[in-house]
């Protein structure tokens, strides 16, 4: 990789491979004392109305869903949990999941392996550098370097793990840890979608069957946010919503996640052994807008490295995602979104800058 000064960002493409300066390597340069100009993020005029940042309101707390009551509770407990799940999806598009079935040791091992990957030598990670959104393993920086007007203070690793499992060869133990973690989170995601289907008044397996989850897309999306010399000027990742149905997130104990709720950015404190669940774009489409995919962003710190690990639960790539016909009524509830193949939606996402719900807006009627 060609050497670069800390204030520069270089990119070399060869056979669809991209060589770049990672944020991690940038922060390890002794010459870095201030934020390089290419990383200075300014809020655009459309976002100024949402620049209030606050802690969760005690009268409107972040919803908490007890997974054990969904799968093991009495009929009354399960019915109440499904009701609470629907309310969280409708009012927040976001909730904390507690008492899930993924062991603490499995979560910790996965966090350790993700850090181990990012700590590999840059040349080893560069083997997975790519600009093609359909590549099964992609290492990169920012969001979409070819489109981004401002670079974001993050490095990422994205891996497709279902319907076909992929893994980098290094570090040793990554493949085994990822396989176990993804198998368990896939089960959690499918159970949550059953409860969501029922809350919508559909059969429990409706979303699983119509979204063809036997061949559904499951992805690991790991993000590294190293300490930033001037965090008030940078952004880890800007406001956006996710493709797919659900996004299951865990963090390493360092806060930085914010979700938009009722016009305010809410700081989400990292809670040990819980998952953070996001309603994603395709669930908004299936519900015909009853549930809203949540806008969220990552801010950075000058004190600690934050790592987030998201598991994307999504339809199969060839599934046409459209509003559930059972929810539609030509007069009272007409279709609010056009159908689109998941594969095409991902390509549309890749060809646009990361900007709020700009991609979802393209399929709205």
TrEMBL record:
Family: Belongs to the iron/ascorbate-dependent oxidoreductase family.
Keyword annotations: Iron, Metal-binding, Oxidoreductase, Vitamin C
Originating species: Cajanus cajan (Pigeon pea)
UniProt lineage: Eukaryota, Viridiplantae, Streptophyta, Embryophyta, Tracheophyta
Chain ranges of the Fe2OG dioxygenase domain: 215-315
Composition bias, Basic and acidic residues: 1-10
UniProt-annotated stretches for the region Disordered: 1-59
Superkingdom classification of source: Eukaryota
UniProt xrefs under InterPro entries: DIOX_N, IPNS-like_FE2OG_OXY, IPNS-like_sf, Oxoglu/Fe-dep_dioxygenase_dom, Plant_2OG-oxidoreductases
Isomerase found in the keyword field: no
Name of the molecule in the record: Protein SRG1
Gene3D superfamilies for this protein: B-lactam Antibiotic, Isopenicillin N Synthase, Chain (2.60.120.330)
A Pfam family recorded for this sequence: 2OG-FeII_Oxy
GO molecular function: L-ascorbic acid binding; metal ion binding; oxidoreductase activity
Record-linked PROSITE patterns: FE2OG_OXY
Polar residues composition bias: residue spans: 11-44
